[in-house]
Design a protein that fits this description.
Layout lengths: L1 H14 L4 E9 L10 E5 L2 E4 L5 E6 L5 E5 L6 E4 H6 L3 E4 L6 H4 L8 H10 L1 H4 L5 E24 L5 H19 L3 E13 L5 E12 L7 H15 L6 E5 L2 E7 L3 H4 L6 E3 H13 L8 H5 L5 E11 L2 E10 L6 E8 L5 E8 L7 E4 L5 E16 L5 E24 L6 E25 L2 H6 L5 E3 L1 E3 L17 H4 L6
Parallel strand pairs: 1-7, 10-23
Antiparallel strand pairs: 1-4, 2-3, 2-5, 5-6, 8-9, 8-21, 9-10, 11-12, 11-20, 13-22, 14-15, 15-16, 16-17, 17-19, 18-19, 19-20, 20-21
C-alpha cells in the first residue's frame, strides 16, 4: 500500500505542478564557452548547479524571483527570472580579473606549503559531518563498451553438424550485436539523507527513475545468459543440463524451459544499496582520518605548488596544484582555498600518470583480468546556516578494463551424459559516473536521526527516453545532451 501511495504522489507531482521550470545556459562573455559547475542560488541556502555543458534548470515561482549566480573566476551575477527570459535564456558571465601584484604588496608569492598547513589547522572549524540532513539528488551513469567478444562451440559429437553450424552462426550474430550495442543507462533518485556520522546514515527516497535501453541492457552475466540460450536451442530441449566452467559447477539443472518460468522483475531499487552508493560518494568529500582528501593534505605524501589567485563570491581564492611525492600517493589535481578561512571550496582530482586503482591478473590461471585505469572527480563546497562548509556537488568517475575467458561445458542430465564444450571470451571497458547534488544541508539532533526509518525497497519508473516532465518541480541535476537524446527499446 505504501508503494502505491509513493507511485500515486509521483504521478501527481509530475503532471499537476503549479509552477513551471525554466532552463538557461551559462556562457563566458568573451569566449562564448559553456561554464560548468556554477552555483545558482535560489534562496539563501538552496540552489542548483550548472552541468558540464553550462545548462541549469530552476523553478519559476514568479517572474520577479531573483537568483544569484557565482562561479570561480567570474563576477557574481544577480538577476530575475524576467531578466533571464529577456536574455533569451542565455546568461553570460564576465571574468573576474585578478592582478596578483595588486593583491600583494611584496613581490613574494604565497607559500603553498604554508597555505596547506593552515588548511589542516582549520579543518575542524570549517567542516562538520555529524548529525545533518541533506536534501539530495543523485544520478548514476554507466557505460559498457565491448571491444572483443568470441563464442565458439568446439566439441559436440552428439549434435548434428548442420545444427552446430547454425549455432555458431547465431553466436557470431550475437557477438556483433553486443559489440555494437554501446550499453548505457542512467539511474536517478531524489531523497533525504540523514547522517549520524560517516558510518551511520538513513536514506528516505521520494522518487526514482531508470532510463535504459532494455534490448541493449548488457552485462557480462547477461551476455553469458544469452549465449547459453543459443546453445540450449540446438541441444535436446527435453533434457536438463549441468553447466560447468573449469572445476566449478554453475548450474545443476539448466533448461530452455527455465526462461518461461521467470517472473517479471519488479521495478524496485534496494534502498540499502542506494544508501551505500550515496554514503560512499559523500565520504569522498570529507576529511576524516585516512580519507582520500585527508591524505591529499598530507605533506609527507604530496608536494604542493602555488599557481594563482582567483575570486569566488568576492573572496580571494588561492589555487594550489598537488602531485604525488611517494609511490603510494595516487592523485594529482587542484585545490581552491579561501584566503579568509583557509577552507577548501573546490577540489579536482584524478589518477597521476602511471597510477592505477584495484587490479588483478589471473588471465592464465582463471581467465580473468581487471584493472581500474581511470578515477577522477570534483567536489564543490558551500557554507551552511552554521558557517560550516558542506559539499554542494560531488562528481566521481571510474573506468575499468576487464577480460573474461571461460571454457563452459554443458553436461546432459542423462545416462549418456553427453557433453558440449563452449569457449566464451569477452573484453572491454566499463565507465561509471556518479553525481550528487545537495540542494540543502541542515543540522539535526540525534533524536531526529533515531526517529527516521529506512524502507527496504523503493519503486522506480522505468523509461526508454528522457522526459523532462517526470521530475516536475523538483530541483535536479540538469541532464547532459546525451541523456536528453537517449532513446531505447522496451
Amino acid at each position: 500500500m505504501k508503494h502505491l501511495i509513493v507511485v500515486y504522489s509521483f504521478l501527481l507531482s509530475s503532471f499537476f505542478g503549479i509552477s513551471q521550470n525554466i532552463t538557461a545556459r551559462l556562457l563566458d562573455k568573451n569566449t562564448q564557452n559553456p561554464i560548468p559547475f556554477a552555483a545558482i542560488k535560489t534562496a539563501e541556502f538552496n540552489g542548483v548547479i550548472s552541468n558540464e555543458e553550462g545548462y541549469f534548470t530552476i523553478i519559476e515561482e514568479n517572474e520577479n524571483s531573483v537568483i544569484t549566480i557565482s562561479c570561480l573566476g567570474y563576477k557574481n551575477k544577480t538577476l530575475s527570472i524576467k531578466d533571464i527570459k529577456n536574455l533569451n535564456f542565455i546568461v553570460r558571465l564576465e571574468e573576474s580579473i585578478n592582478e596578483l601584484n595588486t593583491v600583494y604588496v611584496s613581490n613574494k608569492k604565497p607559500n603553498a606549503d604554508s597555505i596547506i598547513s593552515r588548511v589542516r589547522q582549520n579543518l575542524s572549524k570549517n567542516y562538520e559531518i555529524k548529525l545533518y540532513k541533506h536534501e539530495i539528488f543523485s544520478r548514476k551513469t554507466a557505460y559498457m563498451d565491448f571491444d572483443r567478444l568470441d563464442f565458439e562451440i568446439e566439441k559436440a559429437s552428439h549434435v548434428k553438424k548442420k545444427n552446430l553450424e547454425s549455432a555458431n552462426k547465431s553466436m557470431d550474430s550475437l557477438s556483433k550485436a553486443v559489440i555494437n550495442s554501446k550499453t548505457k543507462h542512467f539511474k536517478d533518485f531524489k531523497a533525504d539523507l540523514y547522517v549520524n556520522d560517516s558510518t551511520k546514515t538513513k536514506l528516505k527516497v521520494y522518487k526514482a527513475t531508470e532510463l535504459i535501453d532494455q534490448k541493449n541492457n548488457l552485462s557480462i552475466e547477461e551476455v553469458q545468459k544469452r549465449a547459453q540460450h543459443v546453445i540450449l536451442k540446438y541441444l535436446d530441449t527435453t533434457l536438463t543440463y549441468k553447466l560447468k566452467t573449469g572445476l566449478f559447477k554453475i548450474e545443476d539443472s539448466l533448461s530452455l524451459k527455465d526462461d518461461d518460468k521467470n517472473e517479471p522483475k519488479k521495478n524496485e531499487y534496494q534502498v540499502k544499496d542506494l544508501n551505500g552508493q550515496t554514503n560512499n560518494l559523500l565520504m569522498r568529500s570529507q576529511f576524516y582520518e585516512n580519507s582520500m582528501l585527508s591524505k591529499i593534505l598530507d605533506a609527507d605524501l604530496y608536494e604542493y605548488s602555488f599557481v594563482d589567485v582567483s575570486y569566488f563570491n568576492n573572496e580571494l581564492i588561492y589555487i594550489i596544484n598537488y602531485k604525488p611525492k611517494r609511490s603510494k600517493s595516487k592523485y594529482t589535481g587542484k585545490l581552491f582555498i579561501t584566503d579568509d578561512t583557509y577552507a577548501i571550496t573546490k577540489v579536482d582530482f584524478e589518477f597521476a600518470d602511471g597510477k592505477r586503482g584495484e587490479k588483478f591478473n589471473l588471465k592464465l590461471l582463471l581467465g580473468v583480468k581487471y584493472v581500474e585505469n581511470m578515477r577522477k572527480g570534483t567536489v564543490i563546497y558551500q557554507k551552511d546556516t552554521l558557517n560550516k562548509y558542506q559539499p554542494q556537488y560531488i562528481k566521481y568517475e571510474e573506468g575499468r578494463y576487464f577480460y573474461v575467458s571461460r571454457p563452459l561445458k554443458f553436461i546432459e542430465n542423462s545416462p549418456e551424459k553427453n557433453k558440449t564444450s563452449f569457449d566464451f571470451t569477452i573484453e572491454g571497458n566499463i565507465i561509471t559516473k556518479q553525481e550528487l547534488l545537495l540542494n540543502s544541508s541542515i543540522k539535526i539532533t540525534s533524536g531526529i536521526f533515531n526517529q527516521q526509518t529506512e524502507e527496504k525497497t523503493v519503486p522506480y519508473l522505468k523509461l526508454n527516453k528522457y522526459d523532462s516532465k517526470v521530475w516536475g518541480q523538483d530541483q535536479t541535476l540538469e541532464p547532459l545532451q546525451e541523456m536528453k537524446e537517449f532513446k531505447g527499446e522496451d
